[in-house]
Amino acid sequence: MAINYRVAISRRALKNIETAPQHVVLKLMAWKDGVERFGLFEMRKWPGFHDEPLLGTRQGQRSVRLSRSYRAIYKITKSESHLILIEEVTKHVY
């Protein structure tokens, strides 16, 4: 039985999306729709998103690759509603 997830986008992430390239926004929306449709654990299997846990000060958060430069940072809330909160969309610094 698949868990139904709901994905929310924070105000900060919405502000980040305003300046992001269109292809990054489209990939983010594809990931969001995929999580809500197929579930988070199924989407983690898709290699194009490179879903991975973060370390250090971002422990407890995960990132999804939206392009070579852009990442979406999200966390899973501890509520019963299985809410995933996209906290920010950021340009990755190498």
Name a few traits of the molecule.
alpha+beta, YaeB-like fold, 5-stranded mixed β-sheet, 3 helices, 28% strand
Q: How would you characterize the overall build of this protein?
A:
There is one protein chain. By secondary structure, the protein is α+β, with helices and mostly antiparallel strands. The protein has a single domain, classed as YaeB-like fold, CATH 3.30.2310.20. It has a five-stranded mixed beta sheet. β3 and β4 (70-76) form a beta hairpin. The longest helix is centred in the first third of the chain and has 17 residues, at 22-38. It starts with 5 loop residues before the first strand and ends with a strand. Helices cover 32% and strands 28% of the residues.
Topology of helices and strands:
Layout: E1 6-9, H1 11-19, H2 22-38, H3 40-43, E2 52-53, E3 62-65, E4 70-76, E5 83-91
Parallel strand pairs: 1-5
Antiparallel strand pairs: 2-3, 3-4, 4-5
